[in-house]
Amino acid sequence: WALSVGGDENNNFPNKYFFGFGTSNAAETNMTVASVGNATTNKGVHVVGVYDGSSKLSLYVNGVLNNTSTVSGNPWVSTRHLYVGADPGCGIRSVVNGQVDEARVYSRALSAQEVQQLYGVGVVNVAHSNPSAVGSGLVGNWTFDGPKLNWATGAVLDSSGQGNTAQLIGMATSSSPVVGKIGQALKFNGSTGYVITPIVPS
């Protein structure tokens, strides 16, 4: 599974928002949907990828359905964890050089109305995240707010209630925490910094 800005690990869909999955380890992300229009830079953007569980991928940008794609085959059951900010297994091809705020993972497909509701949470700057917003099926919610980060241990607390504590890798207190759209965000350096979660996508 991948949700990214700037294309996939093989440099397909450059400058696009991208969501997809692979049907095998060798296939990587061969079932995909990319945005209509290029990604916006130097501005906060809300991006959501949804898989309906059978044949459709949907990509939402700022609460609005941007594009869909018909897919076939089943997602490959990986043993690798979910990463935020970079995929160390793909090197420089799969990194974020920018900020990430409020990463969420669900065990079900969200409706268009629910995506719009989540977007509405961040329309105005607020002090803290709201994990109760669209809480059904939420299995991971890493807000990156200050109280949710333990820089001594590198722990990133999960606000979903599922206990999926993540880990900071290659991040620094001097440069990584920044003001986010909703509370605090993390700034990734485009090379070594990332967050590893205990979730193994399936």
Protein described:
- This protein has 202 residues and is mostly beta strands.
- Strands 7-16-13-12-11 form a five-stranded antiparallel sheet, with no helix packed on it. The protein has a three-stranded antiparallel sheet with strand order 1-2-3, with no helix packed on it. Strands 4-5-6 form a three-stranded antiparallel sheet.
- Strand 4 and strand 5 form a beta hairpin.
- The longest helix is centred in the middle third of the chain and has 10 residues.
- The protein is globular, with a radius of gyration of 16 Å.
- The chain starts with a strand and ends in a 6-residue tail after the last strand.
